[in-house]
Amino acid sequence: MGQKFQYDESGATFFYFLLSFLALILIPVTLFYWPKKKKIDLEEEKKKCQCPPCITKREHLKTSEPWRKTKNFFIKLGIVLGWITLLFIAYKLSQFDYEMANFDPYEILGISPGARQADIKKAYRKLSLILHPDKDTGNEKEFMKLTKAYQALTDEEARRNWEKYGNPDGPGAMSFGIALPSWIVEKENSIWVLGLYALVFMVALPIVVGSWWYRSMKFTGDQVLMNTTHMYYFFFHNTPQMALKRVLMILAASYEFDKRHNSEIEERQSDNDEVPMLFRKLQNLNQKNKQKPLCYPYSIKARAIIHAHLSRIPLNPETLEKDRRYIIGKCPYLIQEQVNCVNQLILLGYARRVERLITTEAIENCMKLCPMIVQGMWEFKSPLLQLPYITDDNLKYFMSKKRQIKTLQQYAQLKGEERRSILRNLSDDEYENVMKVLGAMPYIDFQITVEVMDDENPTDVTTGALVTVIVTLVREDMSTLFGDETIKEVVDIEENGVDEPKEGPEHEPARVKKPAWMKQKRGGKKTKKPNRPTPKPVTATATANAVKQKVEDSPNVSTERKQKPKEERKARVEEEESDLSADESDADTNERDNKSSEDESGGQNIDAEDDQEWERFRKLHEREKSLEGKSKVSHPVHCPYFPHEKQEYWWVYIVDRKSKTLLTAPYYVTSLVDRESVHLKFTAPSWSGLFTVTVCLRSDSYIGFNQQKDLKLDVKQAPAETTEHPQWDFEDDEQENLLEKADQESEYTTDEDLPEDED
């Protein structure tokens, strides 16, 4: 078969390539980049806070990007032009395909198939006199078709091939076309083609790759300057116990606020007058610090602006207020980078056995600073100031002889009349706005369970075992506490020392569990609880059933989850019947009865193993789900003094309060919409005993919403045959080094270390 490689003379093949290329680009670009006009939802607008700071913030967000309309216009124009080009190319190709599909040289010349050469030449001369472009009746396009038809039939072999195979080249001819027009290889255009090639591959491509490489080397994965991260490492390594104001100083020294490292920073001549005036209004700025870069002008200016933000001091809207919005908007990302840096330094200190380890005080002060920045208030201020219209003058109404309202949760639990009487100085619209904001704030149910993964008995913690703490967070709105008298009854019962609630259907809601923050503060004199006896060993099946029963009886579990599957009920009934039959069986039963009993017992074991396998499968599914990409959408935060929209995020981690050491890396929960489970893992101590660790939950958006729970671990000595866990294939000398390292790293709190007046 003959093969011909040639450039596309007519341009049809090139148009096919261009059409496919444009379609591959235009379809995703249109879907993702076409500007979409946000629909104004009246219901959502009503839910938003209508206090003056929030209204001012929303107006500023609308006008903060004046170039957005122009940008959207050019994006729409480019996409529309692209689609017009695509449609034009598709139309040209459809016309070309139609002409090629209807190309018949005999029909064009007006002769019958099998005509002689003389008849073909005669017909061609006759039509060429009419269609020639130099004639008045000429048509260049039709004349080209006429010429092509004549050329296809003048060759005798070509005409026979056309008559027999419908192809002038014969049955085996095959041609390959290059999807480029022929003018690309023409000599007079070579200089332009080479110039375009050099521009794309020798200039544009290296610039794009170099810019990407420069940004990757300049910024971290969270788009924080590498110089800023190195500065964080330096200061936190040199100050293991860092105070909160010291953390604020380091935050203000971030190179994101320096004009030499960030071109978005504005430096004005008016700063020489306005910044010193701001210094006089503030205290404890520590301007005489000589450490670099803490003493640089940009760092002192940023520190003063952050102090003014936390003190809610108004600034010049044309100068320092613009700087405040930019600096404060960057702070949450920088604080998260600080948390990551401190965590890495703690892990590095454990690995290198550093004597002066960084304590949890530094990392918790970083976390404490984030909600301060978001809410624009100092930590020692009342959490009630996070509500709209509430000022320092209103706080006196919350602190009376009858009631001492210090937290938002306490205020939410009051009856409606009491809540309204406290804010009687507000109008009805203002009070309704306060309740709207308070009702949308988070109410977190914080539960923890302990398991030992990849072990025969997941309920027993042995020395050196890998302990997994499953933290379950259930988020509800604070409006669920409005006027809830049952919670108040539970508090009164526990404070008055009543052992059991009253019976009767009218007192049935008194069984509702008390909120977690009230469990941490108990009134009255604290007494030491007597030591509890060591629990008896239980089987895995019994433990699983107990855990299921506890989860089903929990008030936070929905009604649908309380309904037990039929398979579980059936397995439990069969197990009880088998136990009963085993107790009543006689020692002198025949061999058949024994065999039947053994088969029944084997069935029970199979059911128990199936339950355990299902439980393990569920846990593996949760772990795989936790490894998926994190969502950044949870619930909007009421933060009128923060320049951008903010979502609720949380830190979850485990610490040892006695030695002030961090046992697990802080897990950043960014997708807590309704329910979230977090798996925290750490290694149990290498010696047996009763140890106490603390599981902490911290908010990065609200002040006064932190929770913590003490977790007591009864660590037992591992059996001799299981001292070396099969899942860790270490050599003997390596395992001894690891155990020695665990002894030197941290001391866990035991019951003997707790004060006598503590539970």
Automatic annotation (TrEMBL):
<feature type="compositionally biased region" description="Basic and acidic residues">
    <location>
        <begin position="549"/>
        <end position="573"/>
    </location>
</feature>
<feature type="compositionally biased region" description="Acidic residues">
    <location>
        <begin position="745"/>
        <end position="759"/>
    </location>
</feature>
<dbReference type="InterPro" id="IPR004179">
    <property type="entry name" value="Sec63-dom"/>
</dbReference>
<feature type="compositionally biased region" description="Basic and acidic residues">
    <location>
        <begin position="499"/>
        <end position="511"/>
    </location>
</feature>
<feature type="domain" description="J">
    <location>
        <begin position="104"/>
        <end position="166"/>
    </location>
</feature>
<dbReference type="GO" id="GO:0008320">
    <property type="term" value="F:protein transmembrane transporter activity"/>
</dbReference>
<dbReference type="InterPro" id="IPR035892">
    <property type="entry name" value="C2_domain_sf"/>
</dbReference>
<keyword id="KW-0653">Protein transport</keyword>
<keyword id="KW-1133">Transmembrane helix</keyword>
<keyword id="KW-0472">Membrane</keyword>
<keyword id="KW-0813">Transport</keyword>
<dbReference type="InterPro" id="IPR001623">
    <property type="entry name" value="DnaJ_domain"/>
</dbReference>
<dbReference type="InterPro" id="IPR036869">
    <property type="entry name" value="J_dom_sf"/>
</dbReference>
<dbReference type="GO" id="GO:0031207">
    <property type="term" value="C:Sec62/Sec63 complex"/>
</dbReference>
<feature type="compositionally biased region" description="Basic and acidic residues">
    <location>
        <begin position="589"/>
        <end position="598"/>
    </location>
</feature>
<feature type="region of interest" description="Disordered">
    <location>
        <begin position="716"/>
        <end position="759"/>
    </location>
</feature>
<keyword id="KW-0143">Chaperone</keyword>
<protein>
    <submittedName>
        <fullName>Translocation protein SEC63 homolog</fullName>
    </submittedName>
</protein>
<feature type="compositionally biased region" description="Acidic residues">
    <location>
        <begin position="574"/>
        <end position="588"/>
    </location>
</feature>
<feature type="compositionally biased region" description="Basic residues">
    <location>
        <begin position="512"/>
        <end position="531"/>
    </location>
</feature>
<feature type="transmembrane region" description="Helical">
    <location>
        <begin position="73"/>
        <end position="91"/>
    </location>
</feature>
<dbReference type="GO" id="GO:0006620">
    <property type="term" value="P:post-translational protein targeting to endoplasmic reticulum membrane"/>
</dbReference>
<dbReference type="GO" id="GO:0006614">
    <property type="term" value="P:SRP-dependent cotranslational protein targeting to membrane"/>
</dbReference>
<dbReference type="Pfam" id="PF00226">
    <property type="entry name" value="DnaJ"/>
</dbReference>
<dbReference type="InterPro" id="IPR014756">
    <property type="entry name" value="Ig_E-set"/>
</dbReference>
<dbReference type="GO" id="GO:0003723">
    <property type="term" value="F:RNA binding"/>
</dbReference>
<dbReference type="Pfam" id="PF02889">
    <property type="entry name" value="Sec63"/>
</dbReference>
<keyword id="KW-0256">Endoplasmic reticulum</keyword>
<keyword id="KW-0812">Transmembrane</keyword>
<feature type="transmembrane region" description="Helical">
    <location>
        <begin position="191"/>
        <end position="214"/>
    </location>
</feature>
<feature type="region of interest" description="Disordered">
    <location>
        <begin position="495"/>
        <end position="612"/>
    </location>
</feature>
<feature type="compositionally biased region" description="Low complexity">
    <location>
        <begin position="537"/>
        <end position="548"/>
    </location>
</feature>
<feature type="transmembrane region" description="Helical">
    <location>
        <begin position="14"/>
        <end position="34"/>
    </location>
</feature>
